UniProtKB/TrEMBL annotation:
InterPro entries: F-box-like_dom_sf, F-box_dom
Alphabetical list of SUPFAM superfamilies matching this protein: F-box domain (SSF81383)
Residues annotated as domain F-box: 1-50
Coiled-coil portions: 168-209
Keyword tRNA processing attributed: no
Protein name in the entry: F-box protein skip24-like
Pfam families with a match to the protein in the record: F-box-like
Gene3D superfamilies assigned to the protein according to its UniProt record, in alphabetical order: 1.20.1280.50
Keywords: Coiled coil
Domain of life the protein comes from: Eukaryota
Length: 279
């Protein structure tokens, strides 16, 4: 490093930045390699070029002129640009979450309509089946039958206050319409469910952060290790027979077996209480 003059290193860095070979990350990495490069990587000429290339639409304002170095100005702009990007990302996530809520609302509407149409179809089918039996009974009255059967059929026909044929045709049309409505609602429900699944996958992809996920897994594993250590520590402090006694009493309390404990003999209760006092 010391064999080359300072001006040559400065020229190398300038050429690297002008040819887009070096970025702000590269300059930060270079600055920690040695003292010479640390001084050279803080030159204003280098950071001025990075400012013009990375932030071309935001020229330095009067508020930035109070800072002494271009590197500080770049750092400030970088932080503000990062905050702006994070805010834009949060807005996109919120829009996607509101879209998912709207999908859930539509699914609930489709489910309500489906339930209503199915109930209506069941009622229509039941009434249609009854009217068909009435029609069959009115036809059967023209044929000789036993008096008991004939009386029951006649009563069934007399209870029908509307003409069976016209009502049957109306109910058949209504049942066909219900079936068409159910098919359409089921298709709309499947399409909306597919859109919901797609939106949830997109939201999960937006929220995915590998470092945060690894931190969560590390904390979870650390918590498990601490619990195991605490359990082993407690088990090592107590003798085996005393530990079994404590576990037995814990199970009794957890299972609300107070009455069973009261049924024990007085001698056994006194032994347990003595052991607890010793513990």
């Amino acid at each position: 490093m010391s064999s080359l003059p300072r001006e040559l290193w400065t020229k190398i860095l300038e050429i690297g930045i002008q040819n887009n070979g070096l970025t702000y990350k590269d300059l930060c990495c270079i600055s920690i390699s040695c003292r010479l490069l640390h001084r050279l990587s803080s030159e204003d000429s280098l950071w001025n070029h990075l400012l013009s290339t990375d932030f071309p639409l935001s020229p330095p304002s009067s508020s930035y002129l109070a800072y002494r170095t271009s590197k500080t100005v770049y750092s400030l702009k970088f932080v503000r640009d990062k905050e702006r990007k994070n805010a834009a990302h949060r807005r996109i996530v919120l829009r996607k979450e509101s879209q998912i809520v709207e999908h859930y609302r539509k699914l609930l509407v489709f489910q309500t309509q489906l339930s209503r149409e199915k109930s209506k179809a069941i009622e229509t089918s039941t009434e249609l089946s009854h009217l068909r039996r009435v029609r069959e009974a009115s036809v059967a009255l023209n044929v000789w039958q036993p008096e008991v059967v004939r009386g029951r059929q006649k009563q069934m026909v007399e209870q029908c206050v509307v003409p069976a044929e016209s009502r049957i045709r109306a109910l058949e049309m209504e049942l066909r319409l219900c079936k068409q409505q159910i098919l359409g609602l089921e298709k709309s429900h499947r399409d909306e469910q597919r859109r919901l699944d797609t939106a949830e996958e997109e939201l999960e992809s937006m929220k995915y952060h590998p470092l945060r996920k690894n931190e969560h897994n590390i904390r979870k594993n650390e918590h498990k290790v601490k619990r195991k250590k605490l359990k082993s520590c407690h088990s090592s402090l107590l003798p085996a027979h005393k530990l079994q006694l404590v576990l037995l009493l814990t199970d009794l309390v957890a299972l609300h077996l107070h009455d069973t404990f009261q049924l024990l003999s007085s001698t056994m209760r006194n032994e347990i209480q003595d052991e607890l006092l010793i513990l």
